[in-house]
Design goal:
The chain has 21 helices and 14 strands. It is an alpha+beta fold. It has five domains: 221 residues, Rhopdopsin 7-helix transmembrane proteins (Up-down Bundle); 52 residues, no CATH class; 156 residues, GAF domain (Beta-Lactamase, 2-Layer Sandwich); 88 residues, Helix Hairpins; 143 residues, 2-Layer Sandwich (Heat Shock Protein 90). The strands form four sheets. The protein has a five-stranded mixed sheet with strand order 4-3-7-6-5, with helices on both faces. It has a five-stranded mixed sheet with strand order 9-11-12-14-13, with helices on one face. A hairpin with a 7-residue loop joins strand 13 and strand 14.
């Protein structure tokens, strides 16, 4: 496959995926269904047209004719659906009688069938000396052409009419779709109609790829309900093009100059070129400013001044005047009013809003509500209707809720721009920046007014914060207690093996001993030091796990073989206490995803506990099984755990017998299993035994 082949399939897949994503998001909306129908048809057109060209170019006429006819049919499908989408998106503002829409749909389906499966549009290929000359067209080809032209003109007229009638964010959406459509039609007509008149044949076969000029803007318009300032975006795009052009020019030019004039080694020249290109990029990035339109610059400066002055206000009147000056006077916004919430109507000399369903809905919003965006957003229940009607009543285009520790205390209502233009994404971001400062100063002013509701609210906030603080203090105290336990346990556990080791060393140094006796003492010394090493390793492991510095590298492992090997290692140790250790595995092999070294640590801890706490002549077992697509390993023994200890079993320094360890093994095991995205738990249904169950991912 060459680039031409790949581009057809790539763009066909891209177009289909975008349509499918829109359908998944808003399957109940008419424009979403039409967009999916359109993208499916256009993708089918691209594929069938490619296959038609493929077979025709290879003089395989029969399959070529089949695919070419399908290409005629799918082109009608795609173009008709495009017309229907433009009519319906984002809503049908141009009235077309229902019977005409039904007639259009019926005629489209009929022409698709006729074009795809009969010779009435494309009869056969004209072939001279085994070479393709042209299609021999059928009797209805003129109908096919006229219907395509009708679709192009209808879409064009609909776009212009909707652009004239729409306002605000809806106009922005239609503009994206319309400009994309104009780009596609211009490209298609230019390459297939205008240029061939002058014997210029370019991009004729590639014309379906131009569909993305329409589909991508349409997809963006469907998904977005708040747009960036295109003037800013285009200016900054030019800036980035200049920066990267300078970077790559320097990168390529440096080795060429170095090779011609300095005779430097080519590898060194490329390294110098890369360093110089990076230097040039950073220099220009600093010297060429980020370009902003004058209107956006004015908006940002005004809101920055508001932020700097807001903390100098100490009364509601001053704060209200500052907001009016910033938004109404400096930025020509029709309305700017700050409301304070109350449970019931009160005369406070300031704008008061009584709590209702609107404020309940407002409390759930994070930043701002923009009136023009509401028709395109999803809300539960009748929230959208409540918000829309109330914003209309307040004559507000934007409402920003204000909170004091998650309690709604008021809101800022801003009207529309005097220019009639919509609020851009950058402008709304600047408004949101003042939110925190405005919340703090409003709450301070209301407290200074000594209003009962704010005083009660502040008391409840203080009480809640006090409870949280007390809880944190209790947690810190518990941590200190655990630290004290840890230090005491550490001192005891380290002291015992060290004392034994030192005594053994002293005895060896002060007395002559027989070789046999010496061997025994050295063995005890080795055991004591080995215990010390294990304790040190446990402490190190806990530290690494607590700091999230432990990593696992899972690999596909035959769990039956892996567990059998570990069971074999423990069998001699269990034999010292006459403990039977059994292993049960299913007949079918079970594969798990584990880090063999880390996971071994889990099993060693569990089997080590089984050895420590299981009485003489007791029993232990390992069960391997597959449950609901997961690997389960059960490690059990005939020891029992008191009920009071079960809920703390995986905590640090919790041990049944302090003489047998520091109580870190199960904590470490739990952490390692969780690193494997698995679970470990104590089976509390097992009354006469101790049973730990591990569940991990099954390997594919």
């Amino acid at each position: 496959m060459d680039f031409f082949d790949l581009s057809y399939f790539f763009f066909a897949l891209l177009v289909f995926i975008m349509g499918f994503l829109v359908f998944l998001r808003d399957s109940k909306k008419k424009h979403a269904l039409l967009f999916f129908t359109e993208t499916t048809g256009l993708a089918a057109w691209m594929i069938t047209l490619y296959l038609g060209f493929y077979y025709v170019d290879r003089s395989v006429w029969e399959p070529g004719l089949i695919w070419m006819r399908l290409a005629y049919g799918t082109s009608i499908w795609g173009m008709s659906a495009m017309t229907a989408f433009i009519y319906a998106f984002p809503r049908a503002t141009v009235h077309v009688p229902k019977f005409l829409r039904q007639l259009f749909a019926a005629f489209t389906v009929g022409l698709i069938i006729v074009s795809s499966f009969t010779p009435l549009v494309n009869d056969y290929f004209l072939i001279v000396e085994n070479e393709y000359i042209q299609d021999t067209l059928g009797s209805l080809f003129i109908v096919y052409v006229l219907f395509l032209v009708f679709n192009l003109l209808a879409s064009l007229v609909l776009s212009i009419m909707k652009l004239r009638r729409a306002e605000g964010i809806e106009k922005e959406k239609i503009a994206f779709v319309s400009y994309g459509y104009f780009a596609f039609v211009t490209g298609a007509v230019l390459t297939n109609v205008v240029l061939p008149v002058f014997d210029i044949v370019i991009l004729q076969r590639e014309v379906p790829i131009l569909i993305v000029l329409f589909i991508i803007p349409s997809y963006y318009a469907i998904h977005k309900y708040r747009f960036f300032n295109l003037h800013n975006a285009s200016l900054n795009l030019i800036r980035k093009i200049l920066l990267y052009a300078a970077f790559f020019s320097t990168l390529i030019a440096t080795p060429i100059v170095a090779d011609r004039f300095l005779e430097i080694n080519l590898a060194i020249a490329w390294v110098l070129g890369a360093l110089l290109a990076l230097f040039v990029f950073r220099l220009l990035e600093r010297e060429i400013p980020v370009v902003t339109s004058e209107s956006q610059k004015k908006f940002r400066v005004s809101l920055t001044n508001l932020q700097s002055k807001i903390y100098t206000t100490n009364t509601f009147d001053k704060l209200s005047r500052l907001i009016q000056t910033t938004f109404a006077v400096n930025l020509n916004i029709t309305e700017a009013r700050l409301y304070v919430l109350r449970d019931k109507k009160q005369e406070l000399g300031i704008p008061v809003y009584v709590k209702d369903n609107f404020t309940k809905a407002l409390k759930k919003q994070k930043d701002v509500i923009v009136a023009e965006e509401l028709p395109f957003q999803k809300f539960k229940g009748g929230t959208k209707k409540i918000l829309t009607s109330k914003l209309k009543e307040l004559e507000a285009s934007i409402v920003m809720p204000l909170f004091a520790d998650k309690n709604l205390i008021g809101f800022l209502a801003l009207g529309s721009k005097a220019s009639g233009k919509v609020y851009k994404n950058e402008e709304i971001e600047e408004i949101i920046k003042i939110k925190n400062n405005l919340e703090v100063i409003l709450m301070n002013i209301l407290l200074n007014m000594n209003l009962q509701e704010e005083n009660d609210l502040m008391k409840s906030i203080v009480n809640e914060k006090t409870k949280v603080l007390q809880k944190k203090i209790a947690e810190i105290k518990a941590l200190f207690d655990k630290q004290a336990e840890f230090i005491a346990a550490s001192a005891h556990e380290f002291k015992t093996p060290l004392t034994v080791a030192i005594l053994q060393m002293e005895e060896l140094m002060s007395h002559k001993t027989e070789t046999k006796d010496l061997s025994k003492k050295l063995k005890r010394l080795d055991t004591s030091l080995d215990n010390l090493k294990n304790l040190t390793q446990e402490l190190f492991d806990v530290q690494q796990l607590d700091l999230n510095q432990t990593e696992v590298t899972p690999e596909k492992t035959d769990m039956g073989v892996y567990l059998k090997r570990i069971r074999t290692e423990f069998a001699p140790l269990m034999k010292q206490k006459n403990i039977q250790i059994r292993f049960h595995t299913p007949k079918k092999k079970v594969y798990g995803l584990i880090d063999k070294q880390r996971f071994r640590q889990v099993l060693v801890n569990l089997l080590g506990n089984a050895y420590k706490f299981t009485p003489e002549k007791g029993k232990a077992a390992i069960h391997l099984k597959e449950v609901k697509g997961k690997v389960q390993i059960e490690v059990c023994n005939s020891a029992t755990i008191p009920e009071a200890d079960k809920k703390h079993i995986f905590e640090k320094f919790k041990t049944k017998d302090a003489k047998k360890g520091m109580g870190l093994g199960l904590y470490i095991s739990k952490k390692i299993v969780e690193l494997h995205k698995g679970k470990i738990w104590l089976d509390e249904k097992a009354k006469d035994r101790t049973s730990f169950i591990i569940e991990i991912k099954k390997a594919p």
